[in-house]
Amino acid sequence: xxxxxxxxxxxxxxxxxxxxxxxxxxxxxxxxxxxxxxxxxxxxxxxxxxxxxxxxxxxxxxxxxxxxxxxxxxxxxxxxxxxxxxxxxxxxxxxxxxxxxxxxxxxxxxxxxxxxxxxxxxxxxxxxxxxxxxxxxxxxxxxxxxxxxxxxxxxxxxxxxxxxxxxxxxxxxxxxxxxxxxxxxxxxxxxxxxxxxxxxxxxxxxxxxxxxxxxxxxxxxxxxxxxxxxxxxxxxxxxxxxxxxxxxxxxxxxxxxxxxxxxxxxxxxxxxxxxxxxxxxxxxxxxxxxxxxxxxxxxxxxxxxxxxxxxxxxxxxxxxxxxxxxxxxxxxxxxxxxxxxxxxxxxx
Length: 348
Prior knowledge:
By secondary structure, the protein is α/β, with parallel strands linked by helices. It has 14 helices and 12 strands.
């Protein structure tokens, strides 16, 4: 399946399209299939794992989905001990993949593709969150991308997806990073928040839950702060598609998928149910993940409306994923391992 990368845009139409400011309503696709989960459970009792089954989440708000998938007990027919945990750093996640310790684990879609292309045998099971990146400002001086000209932007995660997505938006607006816009990098969103609130830079690029944490802290300190631009809305306007970026999902290693395809199917179905439940129970979902994420439950709960939860199998999401990879690769092919993954990467 081919997904043409954006190589040229009509500047006038682009400027008109990115005149969208503020946060548009979130579009969540319809969720299906708790009956599928029940069918899979019925066939599981004779194939229980002899060891604990751990679902590894990412250190961010989307992990509420995996926490709920475990807490729902939907996977107990497959293992008597099912756990939810969170990897703390990308180094830990990479090590877990390399050693085989991480069998079912949440990760960014591009990282999963990188593992796959480098021979790890990683398969992407699903995508659960579709855009959670925001440009925050103290005032209304930034309403459109072109307003960033001459601004000082604080951001983190250099050369990773948030950074590359921001570069794409600037490129499509005709702005050159480092020339038209000053970029100021720090190590993590956790570092960026206090630095920005102390007065550094004009605007700050944050993903959730850091954006929500910044808003809550600014309110406590009686400092102005607003969501100036939604990067996902801009990406959708520029690609001509819906405002959806397939950012984070569940992946599985090759050995586990080969030996336990029924568990993989059940886990995806549990994620579908977990998204539906989370959308209806933000506070309860936040409580489930709070301890492992080491974040206050109110921060997680308030961030959930801004992370576009929707669980689709990787196969269902393949067209969006390939377009996303095309655009990331236009800036840095190495981010996905130098090429788009083949069809075996997409489960479903």
